[in-house]
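Chapter summary example.
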Amino acid sequence: MVKPEDIQLIGTEVAIRWADGVEDFLPMDKLRALSPSAETQGEHDLLGNLIGGGEPGRDFSGVTVIGYVPIGGYAIQFNFSDGHRTGIYSFDYLREIGERLREPGNR
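The structure predicted for these 107 residues follows.
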């Protein structure tokens, strides 16, 4: 697990400089859409049925990050301008998002 050295909110992006020197600029609206929360993604019951998660694919244009808090030494919880704050983004998940966005055509 690579840890962030620095995190800054710049305009409509979350800038992360990782300990290995990689830098990611993550659009805030995309972070909101990719929230790992049960509210956004849903969760499975004991029988494997998906419950909730009515937000995947929803347009979060204009939603910004208004703050964040570290969770242990492994994750970040973002506070979004639409009131959402239940997703806990592991460092590995944030790094995965950054890698996807660095691929051509995924910005």
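To summarize the output: Residues 4-102 form a domain with the NE0471 N-terminal domain-like fold (CATH 3.30.2020.30).
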